[in-house]
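pipeline/complex-builder :: batch 7 item 3
reading input block
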Amino acid sequence: QVQLQESGPGLVKPSQTLSLTCDVSGDSISSYSYYWSWIRQHPGKGLEWIGYIFYNGHSYHNPSLKSRAILSVDTSKNQFSLKLSSVTAADTAVYYCARVETNISGAFDIWGQGTMVTVSS
Amino acid sequence: SSELTQDPAVSVALGQTVRITCQGDSLRSHYANWYQQKPGQAPIVVIYGGNRRPSGIPDRFSGSSSGTTSSLTITGAQAEDEADYYCHSRDNSGNQLVFGGGTTLTV
């Protein structure tokens, strides 16, 4: 079955860049049927969409992140990545990667388990 | 972008029916999807495309929509349904994705 797995540092210093990767297994990231997305959840809070990317590199981002978020895709490794620059304590959250259907529903149908990232010196 | 508004908390007696609502202008044009999240776990989709249920989701979960409001209904709520529920859809442009603030369901 399809599985997504996030990886990356659990601790990032303020002003640095947070880098996460999502490994996709059981499906090709080059599928026309899906986008690949990042979502985060601040401690005790709700879900926040960060952005999504298509296999060809076309992407959309949450404007609230003010262009700090860069998504990329590596089809040869069947993975996609998130870089979030100039982080502050407000970026401390659980970060999820997820698969998004490109059909009319646009649902996040498969999620990774999530990875906690703390921003602290 | 647009916002999706949910009640922060809802409670239901065991075996009774509960409706969780999500309100937003973009829901006139785009389907709502609903996710269940239990403590320490990733969300799972329980309703997609407004009223479709993924395999493995009990049929007591259903979805509906009217105007700017989409609803998730649990008919005969069970103790294991106690969780946070989030709606999700697209904004009016269709390109941005947005979540509701979430509803904590107590059974």
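note: The interface with chain A takes residues 1, 30-31, 33, 35, 37, 42-45, 48-50, 52, 54, 86, 88-90, 95-102 of chain B (CB under 8 Å).
queue -> next item
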